[in-house]
Design goal:
Length: 275
Amino acid sequence: MPELPEVEITRQGFADALQGARLLDLRLGKPLRWPLGVSAKALQGARLGLACRRGKYIWLPLDRPEPLGGLLLHLGMSGSLAFTPEPQVLGPHQHLAIDTSQGCLTLTDPRRFGAAVWSPALDASPARELLARLGAEPFDPALDARTLHAGLKGRRVPIKQALLAGDVVVGAGNIYACEALWQAGIHPATPAARVGPARAERLLGAVRAVLSDALAAGGSTLRDFSSSLGAIGRYQSLVAVYGREGEPCPRCRTAVKRIVQGQRSTFFCPTCQRR
DNA sequence: CAGTGGCCCTGAGCGC
DNA sequence: TGCGCTCAGGGCCACT
């Protein structure tokens, strides 16, 4: 479900409201990808800081008032966070509830690929290892086409899979990687190394444009994404190729093709996108 | 050591 | 209606 825009919109939906709240309790449902790594009791009474985002992870800092680490959250494929004024009874797919003096944050995740892991700090284990392979933030001003090009150099993987891997630039998942490549006119099967400086420049611009358009539209709602306040995304109606196999390319009217790369569907225009 | 495929898990949708 | 199959917005990890 959630790529960078959805995660960021989720974060924005509760970050301010929860900042400074007192953690009253932490309730767990079924196991997520990894164990929490701390007892609820150890966190009771902690003060919540301002939630921030790194890639598709959300970091929720805790203090008591001395630093108490924080919770690293990931929504996996099917996760969503809901912020409500009152504590919620955990439903069958709700596997984490953070009850605070200022509201309740509930993680719903049917497939349970998501995670909530306590770490003593962002740069300490286990958060450090989980974030270690992440590439640059797409909107980091320090990221430029030269850096992107350098990150792609020498790699034989198709550019689509290099984007998805997120070790050069984070944030573009399956939808936005397809959309960015369409916008940049790059065939998804192009070996990453064959994306030269000029195309790297176009690709970076396209990744940024697609992600910022999606942010402005409140993300994409394919099945059930909504923000932590329950708002529905509108980007799916702006999508050019993703999920549109057989439909005309918005630019040239050629039928959109679907291929499989690394067990994930890729959608692209065989006319507009060149190897 | 880069690249590949398996796998974690549940639900929806579709053809029969 | 029910069964079995495929597919789904992610990413770690073992293996080649």
